[in-house]
User: Which sequence fits this backbone?
C-alpha cells in the first residue's frame, strides 16, 4: 500500500495495510497526502520498471486489492445499439454492417436523451417491439434496472504495463475504456481510476448467458494506474465530467483513437452505485465499479464490414489528465501470465511484513 506524493511513492502499509482498509477511513485523503511512511521510491523508477516488464524490481500493480470487481453494462446509448447488433448477428462480425444500417433506419434518434425507466423509455420500448427490434440489451439500457455483473474475482485485475488478455477463440473483440469508481463498504464513492473491461463481442453476441465466458478470463480486467481519491479539488461532479481517451497502436502500424465521455452516460454514476450496493447487497471489503463506455468501434480492420478487432501485440492506452494513463499490451488469455496471487497469498504477505 503506497501513496503517490509528487515525484515519489511512499509506503504507508503500517497505517493502511490494504487499499480496502484505506477506503474505510474518513481521513483517507489526508493520510495519502501527509501521513509518515516507510520506504520511498522514485515514481519514475517504478514507472520505468512497470513499462519495461521488470518484475525483479519494484513496480506497479493494479491499485485495488480486496474489493469485489463489479461492472455496469449498456450505460450509453451508442454502445447499447452495438450490443443489440452483436445479439442480432449471433456474434458474426460479417453481418454487423447490414444489421447496423437496419437498426439505424428504425431507431434513428428515438433513444437520444431518453432517461432509463421513464415514460419516454416505455414509449420507445413499444416502438421497438412493434418493429421487431426489442432486445434484452435494450431492457437494461432504457428499462428501470441497469445491468450490473461481477467482472472478475478479487485480486485478479492487472495493472498498467501488464499484458491484457482476450481468449484465443475470439475473432471479434475490443477494449472498453471506462471510469472505475472505488466504493467503500458503506456504499460511498471514495475515489476513481481507469479500467479496461475487455469485451469479446462474438462470444457474448452468441448468447448473453455467455457473459462470464466473454468477460472473466485470465488478464481480462485491467485497472490503474492509481486511485485518485475524492477530495475538495476532485469531487463526484468532477467524475461525472471526465473524458476518457483511448488509443490503440498495432504492431503493423495500425492506429485508432476514440473518446468516451461520462457526460453522455444514460444513468447517473450514483444510481449505478445504488443499484450495486444497498439493503439488497453488502460488500464488507468495498467494491470497484466499471461504469460503462461509449466506445464501440465500427471501423473496419481485417475485412470490409467486420469492424474492429484486436490483433496480438496491440498497445492499448486509456488516459485522462486527472487519472493518468493505463497502458497494456494485448495477448491471448492463454498466453498472459497466469493469475497466481490470491487472497491467501496476500494474507501471508501481510503477515510476513507484520502489518496484519
Assistant:
Amino acid at each position: 500500500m503506497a501513496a503517490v506524493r509528487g515525484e515519489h511513492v511512499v509506503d504507508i502499509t503500517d497505517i493502511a495495510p490494504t487499499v480496502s482498509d484505506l477506503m474505510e477511513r474518513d481521513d483517507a485523503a489526508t493520510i495519502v497526502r501527509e501521513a509518515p511512511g516507510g520506504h520511498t521510491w522514485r515514481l519514475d523508477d517504478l514507472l520505468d520498471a512497470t513499462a519495461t516488464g521488470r518484475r525483479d524490481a519494484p513496480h506497479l500493480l493494479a491499485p485495488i486489492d480486496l474489493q469485489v470487481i463489479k461492472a455496469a453494462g449498456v450505460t450509453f446509448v451508442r454502445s447499447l445499439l452495438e450490443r443489440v447488433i452483436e445479439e442480432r448477428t449471433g456474434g458474426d462480425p460479417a453481418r454487423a454492417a447490414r444489421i447496423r444500417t437496419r437498426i439505424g433506419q428504425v431507431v434513428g434518434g428515438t433513444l437520444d436523451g431518453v432517461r432509463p425507466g421513464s415514460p419516454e423509455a416505455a414509449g420507445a420500448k413499444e416502438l421497438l417491439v412493434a418493429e421487431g427490434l426489442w432486445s434484452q440489451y435494450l431492457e437494461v439500457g432504457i428499462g428501470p434496472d441497469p445491468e450490473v455483473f461481477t467482472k472478475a474475482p478479487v485480486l485478479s485485475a492487472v495493472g498498467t504495463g501488464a499484458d491484457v488478455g482476450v481468449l484465443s477463440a475470439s475473432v471479434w473483440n475490443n477494449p472498453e475504456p471506462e471510469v472505475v469508481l472505488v466504493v467503500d463498504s458503506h456504499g460511498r464513492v471514495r475515489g476513481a481510476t481507469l479500467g479496461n473491461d475487455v469485451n469479446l463481442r462474438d462470444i457474448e453476441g452468441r448468447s448473453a448467458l455467455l457473459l462470464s465466458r466473454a468477460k472473466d478470463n485470465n488478464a481480462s480486467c485491467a485497472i490503474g494506474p492509481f486511485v485518485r481519491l475524492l477530495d475538495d479539488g476532485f469531487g463526484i461532479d468532477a467524475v461525472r465530467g471526465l473524458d476518457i481517451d483511448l488509443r490503440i497502436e498495432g504492431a503493423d502500424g495500425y492506429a485508432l483513437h476514440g473518446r468516451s465521455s461520462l457526460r453522455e452516460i444514460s444513468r447517473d454514476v450514483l444510481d449505478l452505485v445504488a443499484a450495486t450496493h444497498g439493503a439488497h447487497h453488502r460488500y464488507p471489503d468495498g467494491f470497484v465499479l466499471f461504469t460503462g463506455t461509449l466506445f464501440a468501434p465500427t471501423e473496419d480492420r481485417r475485412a470490409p464490414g467486420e469492424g474492429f478487432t484486436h490483433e496480438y501485440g496491440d498497445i492499448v492506452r486509456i488516459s485522462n489528465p486527472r487519472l493518468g494513463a493505463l497502458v497494456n499490451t494485448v495477448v491471448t488469455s492463454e498466453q498472459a501470465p497466469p493469475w497466481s496471487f490470491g487472497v491467501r497469498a496476500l494474507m501471508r504477505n501481510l503477515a510476513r511484513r507484520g502489518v496484519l
Q: What stands out?
A: The chain is about 30% helix and 25% strand. The chain has two domains: 1-60, 67-356.
